[in-house]
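Standup notes
- DV: blocked on the single-chain target, sequence here:
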Amino acid sequence: MSFSSILKDAGVPEHVISTAKIMIANRLIEPLSEWGLIDWSEHSALTELLNVRLTKTTKDRLYKTSDYLLGARKQIESSLRQKEQELFKLRRSIAL
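- DV (later): unblocked, structure below
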């Protein structure tokens, strides 16, 4: 199961998934505000890899994407936990 599938199964709309992936990567690599994320994405290959463009006018889209992720948080976390156990069979949890 891919991360896109996890997001889709959690109810994140398909047209939002690429933006969500950029936001999640940013939070893991260099956490910034939505404004900072837009500038950061211009210096990242993620926008090209995911075929999405973030501009100053997409700030509201980032807030809506955050709302989708927050609403689906428990299901996303559960799916990631299950995937972690399938892949690594660890006795302990990985905390992000």
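- Follow-up: The chain has one domain: 3-88.
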